[in-house]
Amino acid sequence: MNGNIGMRALSMLLAVLLVSMGVVPAVSAENESRGWLDTFDRWVEPRDMSMYNPVIETPQRVPITEEIARQHPGVIILDPKRVSEFQVIDADMVPVSPGKVSLTLQTESGDPGTRDLMPDVRMTQGTISWYWTQDTFVYHEITIHNYASSAASGMVILWSLKDGYGCGVPFSDLAAGADLTVTVPFEVLPQHSSIGIKPMAVEIRVDPTGLTSWMARMPIDAVEKYNNDASHLLDPDGGENLETSDLYHFPFSEGYRVLLEAAQAADGTTEPYQSAYAITQYVNGAMNYTYEDPYLEYIFSDLYMMDHPSPINGKYLGVCDEYGTLYTAFARALGIPTRFLSFSMREVATGNVSGHAIAESWNGTTWVHSDPTWNVFDNPQVYRTAGNDHINITVYGDADDSYYTQDPNDPTGDGILRYEDFRTQILLGEVPRYN
User: Fold this and answer.
1) What is the architecture of the domain spanning 66-225?
2) Where are the domains of the chain?
3) Collapsed DSSP state (helix, strand, coil) of residue 415
């Protein structure tokens, strides 16, 4: 970050003296002051501090059993040997509401059904939910057609192929040539599922033998997230740490891709702590640190990074605040309350003051530190280990690209924000667990 070095040095010295006395320096509006950005000369550089990470346990989901399935009406266990039998079906997909997509199947080409089967019942349309919340019911509407010459009865099943179970709804006396739309309430069982990507499949079985009349994997995968109600992973700040903004676009404001990559980052995890650790590692590997001036002066949204990857290796670009932004977007998208933090710290050996951006995620009982730039997790003392002190922290909340309008080089809506575009700034000061 460039500027008048003499004035910066003086402001840093004053900031350090004030911080040491427990006083937070006031933000001046004179001379186009950048506030917090004026308290340091440079962002921290990337480091691999993963050797200081605690040992992270990796609990696995508990496979569902027949006894457990009987406790949940409609739940059916999938034979794992059958998973590979479900082939993706062609369909026209149209979003119809947040988290739902309408499918119209191309039944005349490549159809895996069995037209010579009597009876012959197939799926033709559906409204599929691709966003699942743990410990809830997710409703899917499946339209079926009886291609046979006599009435048919049977069951429509929606499967979660990764979790190894599905939920079925019976149908009866479907007349020849008739259509029927059934609603399948899929029960998301958190003890027997995991966070992440959920390939879905539909199967139609017909009476009297329960023979499969039609089966296919859906052309869109679902995503499972944590439940944020009072009995589960409640945000201690009333939902503020789960909100979207002009920096974080999920799950519906800009469609599917932020949520899908978040699910990829934490795929297969079963606890918020474990998920946050997985996202930290993923973001660290998905980004390249850049020293380009725009990234040093501004903060870039998740979608901007996705739309402007490195032309060399396809990774996302940014400095530590972009690392923190992407982490925050992914964690919030999966229902993990997460807050974005920036701080200044003094290097003890030289007296230089640098700026850094990280995040903290709520695990249900406490805030857990995450630093994807340094690939370090749950170790807020790592900055002292690296030879720094006076770690002075600010929490940055809601961001609105149209909030600060005095910069002619920062048009509204481009995904490039100034720190002045943060509507909420909470000064925490020298938090003991970091100092």
Assistant:
1) Sandwich (2.60)
2) 5-59+235-429, 66-225
3) coil
